[in-house]
Design a protein that fits this description.
Elements (H helix, E strand, L loop, with lengths): L1 H13 L9 H11 L4 E3 L5 E4 L26 H8 L6 H9 L1 H9 L15 H13 L13
Antiparallel strand pairs: 1-2
Length: about 150
Amino acid sequence: MKHAITALTILAASSGMALAAGDAEAGKKIFNQCQTCHVVADPDGNVLAGKNAKTGPNLYGIIGRPAASYEGFKYGDGIKEAAAKGLVWDEANLTVYVQDPTKFLDEFTGNPKLKSKMVFKVKKEEDAANVAAFLASLSPAAGEAPAATE
């Protein structure tokens, strides 16, 4: 796991991707593309971003949350294998993931046969970092548990 994260960081740096924090306000606009499949709704059911889409899991509290851990969502084998290898979402790895989910899973797990159920890709690195920053801005306060049920 440690080697996979190191490899992802090296990959991101060698591709010219800035690992610095993105712009949450700019990410809010970009998230409009994500809301077709995702919602960000707190444990009380308040929708913080998006619509009540259920194609993808609720992204509330995704930063700091283990992959494939939103209770009640049916995850694909690729993301489940990454979770089994210890993937915990942070802004850096989420930025890489949303640019090419299947490639990310291949590199994180070392299994090129894995596919991601997420087919959408954020084309620009800056946009991906901004979306990650936006989602981080909607995460629960430190120490508060993220939403775990639908």
